[in-house]
Amino acid sequence: MEIIKKYRFLSIILIALIISGFTPLEKKYGKLEIVPEDQNQVILQDLIDKWDDYNIYYSDKYAGFSARSPLGIMFDPKNNDTILMGDRWKKVKDQKTLIEMTQWICPTTLHEPFLNEIFGPAGRFYGYLYYSCGCVTCKMVGDKKMNVFNLEAPNEDDGNEVVHSRKLSFPSDLTHAEVFEANP
Question: Going by C-beta distance under 8 Å and a sequence separation of 6 or more, which residues neighbour residue 73?
């Protein structure tokens, strides 16, 4: 009976150490929450209209500048004390390029893009991410900086659908994608 009491105390300490060891993981990563589909285009249009209020970056699969190959666009609000950053994200310099990039995400990835809000570990709002598919990792770098890792181009050969993507299908007689403006 004394042996059980002795090991019971050690077991409680071991369980407490294991739990406390996993706790810091949830303080190091951010998360994405999908903006409801009925608000998606409204908020995106507001972001485009007020583009000067944001530091805007895009991720693509090429090393140089290309407005016609974006995988996603990140909106970092200028009026808050948080910072979104990434190693290979490139700055969008004007509204015309931003509009063109929002129209080219779907033809580039063959998935319909959707808007996400980016939150820190404590539920703090950091900005928006407009992209179509793939896994996104957001890791805290200090108290107010979040690193959003570069987006990956979809792999067409794997046959797996990405969760939350809305795959588009094109008739077989089309040889190119057509881009339509959301609000003509």
Answer: 56, 57, 58, 59, 92, 98, 101, 102, 105, 129, 130, 131
